[in-house]
Input
Amino acid sequence: MKVSIIGQGYVGLTISASVSKHRNVLGFDLNATIVSQLNKGISHIEGVDSKNIKDAIYAGKYKATSEAADIAGSDIVVIAVPTPLDGNRKPDLTYIDSACKVIAENLTAPALIINESTSYPGTLRDYIKPTIEKYSKHKFEHQYAISPERVDPGRKDYNQKNTPRLYAGLTPEATQRTREFYSTFCDNLVEVSSPEVAEAAKLFENTFRQVNIALVNELAQISHALGIDVRETLDAAGTKPYGFMKFSPSAGVGGHCIPVDPSYLADVAEKAGVQATFIQRANEVNLDMPKYIAGRVEKDNGGSLKGKKVLVVGVAYKPNVADTRETPAELLINALEKLGAVVTWNDPVVGSWQGKDSVALGGSDIAVVVTKHDVVSEVEILKSAPYVFDTTGKVKGAVQL
Ligand SMILES: NC(=O)c1ccc[n+]([C@@H]2O[C@H](COP(=O)([O-])OP(=O)(O)OC[C@H]3O[C@@H](n4cnc5c(N)ncnc54)[C@H](O)[C@@H]3O)[C@@H](O)[C@H]2O)c1
Output
């Protein structure tokens, strides 16, 4: 059996590493640098060990390629390409479209096509299938299924193997083949009655997080205005053994999923005539957090940041990963610069970002902690500036959000 995986990023490489333990995997990616590194056995993804890639290459079970024609003869093709937002914060299916084109133009026999990219309900049925059919020169019928990826990069307790996996096919045959495929490397498969349910569930999971993070960020602002410690309030509320789930205040949401996926749900809702007011408001609250934080820092520092040296500590969107996609640190830096601050950043895990390198801790007037990696010492952060503002709750002794 030959499995082709379109996109060798966080999701695609993670699945390639699992599947290539049992089956022949072709990892297709348009990025030639990534392909060349992968063929040398070098993983560019946290959570995917280079050793796994090397072992699969030596066993003859994995090869990366940028040649679309190499996917010919695949029995299964998995789509794992980005699904970002466009400039108007609307779903951008450009990458899905180009993956469909690659599949349509290069498959030489009917295959099972599984989408793992996150998108709105109806994407598999109303977009992927017709798009592949539109580009295809052949008349044969592929099978189509969805199995949204839930991987959380950097997480140790839940991984691809032990995270329950939703799946559904457009036909009973597609559903059955999808079940067989994932059962070789996933412990817990959850079949749902339609691809739309799986697609909606994936979006709702991340929307649930986005809305609750916004709610707790709003509580942080209310608490500060009332002179109450928000984290103590949350700890207190968290003692209730049922009906409450604790979320923590932060500089906002980051990564490829939480700031993006809810807007896919909002968009499809709007097209169906429903206003997704919670989602929109949650977006606004989270996107405004950096401005709120910059305002607090300004107020605490004599009402002006003009010419002040501000160090942003941690620009990755979450601890212990180098991922800076959609990081709230970017909005915070912009907000601080708008107030006249001279901003640098420290993040040894990220190293370099947007053409600039991480600077050492220290020598600034102000430090604002966005993300606290384990390798960055709390004591060193506290010593790095006379005024330290902490959005993470991890730097005791700093001014807290
Ligand atoms: N990163 C996560 O934690 C995560 C978790 C669950 C779901 N998802 C979803 O999975 C999907 C993929 O996300 P990701 O994080 O793996 O993205 P990524 O940016 O890490 O990787 C995507 C890869 O696809 C490649 N690519 C783009 N278009 C291509 C094409 N037409 N053909 C071949 N390769 C192509 C890119 O070069 C890139 O290497 C998205 O829909 C995302 O929302 C991501």
About this structure: Residues 6-12, 28-31, 34, 80-83, 95, 98-99, 102, 116-118, 149-151, 153, 256-257 surround nicotinamide-adenine-dinucleotide (CB under 6 Å). Residues 246 and 272 are 32 Å apart (CA to CA). The longest helix spans residues 195-226.
